Amino acid sequence: MAVSSCHPCAAAIGSRTMTPHDIQPLGAAIAIVFVGTLTAVLWWMLHPPSWVPAAAAKARQSLSSVKRILVPTIGSPYAERGVELACRLGETQRAEVILAYVMEVPRTLPLGVPLPDAEQKAAEALKRAASITVLHEMPTRSIVQRARVAGDEITKIAKSLDVDMIVLGIQGGTDVRSGGLVFGKTSETIMKSSPCEVVISRLPEASV
Predict the structure, then answer these.
(1) CA–CA distance, 180 with 207 (Å, rounded to integer)
(2) Which residues contact residue 144 at a Cβ distance below 8 angstroms, ignoring those fewer than 6 apart?
(3) How far is CA 87 from its chain centroid?
(4) For the CA atoms of 179, 180, 181, 184, what is the dihedral angle to 10 degrees?
(5) From residue 106, how far is each of 40, 110, 115, 120 by CA, in Å?
(6) Which of 17, 37, 113, 149 is 20 to 30 A off residue 89, Cα-Cα?
(7) 158-173, pLDDT tens digit by residue?
(8) pTM
(9) Contact 102/146 with Cβ under 8 angstroms?
(10) In this structure, which CATH number among 3.40.50.300, 3.30.1360.120, 3.40.50.620, 3.90.226.10 belongs to the domain 65-207?
């Protein structure tokens, strides 16, 4: 006759199911805190502060409304960097990029005096700038103007063509005393007199 080695009490204990009375108060409190914290985090993620999307939407709308971007160039690496930045800023909305080269004519000479060297330099600078816009497949036009002061002429172009933004590629050094940027005469004139937003693109001196 075989004798079972399982004690009736042990079997009863092993088969006993847990009841709500078996849950310890401390464990229940920890579980409640955990669930509450997780719920709060999920709610915050799904309901961010109202000012966040509003600010982002405003910035996005401001950029998407830019239809014409004026980029002055003199054929320098930093000016061409400005052309690249203008293309990126206007790429989504297919903004027109207007390339402008202003030849400054001394007051001692008539504005219409032949300047073959300056004219050739302008043509080469605009050709290089246009090659950048072609890579981005941006609508482009080039302008060559003569003026006594380049900054004044650029602001006149911006007003006459109703541009939405001017992108300036500058070399700007640093003022040792103040630690701020030092802008050239043309850049300062444009920033003071521009009828539209001005975006500055400055390359570090070491990369120029």
Answers:
(1) 19
(2) 100, 101, 102, 103, 119, 122, 123, 126
(3) 12
(4) -100
(5) 69, 8, 11, 18
(6) 149
(7) 999 999 999 999 876 5
(8) 0.68
(9) yes
(10) 3.40.50.620
